[in-house]
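User: Structure please.
Assistant: Input sequence and predicted structure:
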Amino acid sequence: MPVGAAVPPKKSRKGLFIAGGVLALGLVGGGAFLAGRGGSSDDVASPATSVVATTALTTAPEVSAPVTSVLNEPPSVADISRSTVQVQLLDANGIPICSGSGTIVESDGTILTNAHVIARDSFCNFSTIGIAITEDSGQPPVLAFEADLLVADAELDLAVLRIARTLGGQAFTDAEFPALIIGDSDAVEIGEDIRILGYPSIGGDTITFTDGSVSGFTSQAGLDDRSWIKTDATIAGGNSGGTAVNTAGELIGVPTQASATTDGPIVDCRVLADTNNDGIINSEDQCVPIGGFLNGIRPVNLALPLLEEARTATPMRFEDAAPTAPDPQFDPAQVIAFRPSFSLGIGEPEEDTEFVLTAIAGETDLCVWFNWLGVPDGTAWDAVWLVDGEIQDAYSLFAETWEAGTDGFDYWVCAINEDGLDAGLYEMVWFVDGEIVFAEAIEVTAMPSEVFQVTFDNQTGEEICFLNINPRGAIDPGLDELASDTTLGSGETETLFVAQGTVIIEGLDCSGGPVFLNLDGVEISGDQTITLQ
């Protein structure tokens, strides 16, 4: 692994996870963790910032009719997409500053989403809830309406909005919106197909469709055994609050990238509701944490009482407050990680460590290595390991204090199990000051996997500066796989070694903007060429 090589920056993953702190838990099972570091880094340019792309209208467009089935056939994905909206939170000047997704569930414009999508804090100090509707799945959503917040439940991480005005404040009463039929989430069974639509931050400007299957169910204290539907379908940042439907096209849940279990590590803590009952949602309210496994869907049946309450609810108001001034010494969104690698243990000396693309069950040590920029000593950090989407607190590091220097290379974090690691998808997610910086994954297989030479042919018409590849099932395509001095121009090819299996792929331009995205997965079964277009 090259040491100290200067590389182009990978776009910050701020927004992939919802921001927040991570609490320490006691270790369970036979696992352990390990972390360490190498030397210092070269200079690397600062990352680009991302902007929420949108198309705005000065008057409301005509709204499509409600989604209905024809001859008892389920609605198409294109039909369902018209009921999926982008929730754009706007500043005082009407500029989108953060966003999520939502589903129209009643023709009067009632929208079901996550509570954390409309959480107002220093990260997202918005003034207005904007609603961008999906007119054409091949085009960015149209920012055309404003919505009121009617109900928010922090424990369920659910909220109900209602479209109330056109963008700019003109009220209306006669619009009819395309609403999805609400299904029965208690009837969902393990192994059933599930489809997800929304506006993830890694999906570009247009609506994104992913699918998968129901992996199981998880309980939550105070609720029932179906507090969460687990799925292998990809749920990335921005997908939260969106649409999860069954094969009949019925809404059966709300995709929630980070679920709200009370017995797991916390991956978000925001003011989500008026907990002190003063009629205002602000910093005086209790910060209610959510956390737990990833790729979770909140069953729609749990939202039914909130939807009923919303029918007669008075819109909730947000206090006007000046944004919290950022710390001039440190902004976690500016942290950069790059050049990730996996190894099976640490060599003696460290320079002799062998880096791998595959691993076999039974190995005792699995380590992630990476270089970093912009992490001052004394900063809180967390390294969270997941296996098949489940957080493994036995391998994870929580509420650590960074002492490796602001910039550097060859930091390593290891999952250790003296009894041998089980087969599965292993993923390490690195948080700095509560913000996710990256997530990198590797398959640990029962039988040896091969490594193939895969040629990537860029036919997108744009230059690709960052090519991110991770096994399918990972929460994110990961960090850049191209060499530090390599970009992939339009019409150019680059050959990389890729492990056998199915991978997701993301291509970004030099400013971190989306160029190519495949979250459905590409099967790697031999030396082959993959066309990016």
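The CA atoms of residues 471 and 503 lie 4 Å apart.
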